[in-house]
Input
Amino acid sequence: MLTDQDFTYLRRAIAVAEQARRNGNHPFGALLVAADGTLLLEAENTVNTAGDCTCHAETNLVRAAVLRFFPARCVSVRSTPAPNRAPCALGPSTGLGSGGLSALSEADLYQLTGAHPENETMHLPCREVFARCDRIVDVDGPALEAEAATVHTGFWT
Output
């Protein structure tokens, strides 16, 4: 069950995605929220400006988290990634997160992007990926789909 705070963080992730788009990148943003509800970090996609195909919002978030919290707190931070769309397959490999929120499903994102060469998709819902993890990762969402879709309007055409 999503809370008012969850919706606040999803809207913030959408705003970070808008910032990424304004900065010339793909419109994706991600937040790291501690178990107590404290916003720890946020990151935007920087694939285009960094010239590095691994600079997705989630991986940028993980890099920042490692620099800020490792080694003392990195393992002990129970966190919730909150991207503006369903977490991609990179999410489970990061080691961060016991659950997640998503604003836009992978299927809905594909409806917006189509077979765009800069947004290749696996056509694989994040819940299926997370079901294969060694630890339980709960995902709530999608939520705020219409709001999350607006940041993509006109971008992929």
Observations:
- The CA atoms of residues 34 and 79 lie 4 Å apart.
- The longest strand covers residues 29-34.
- Confidence is low (pLDDT under 50) at residues 74-80.
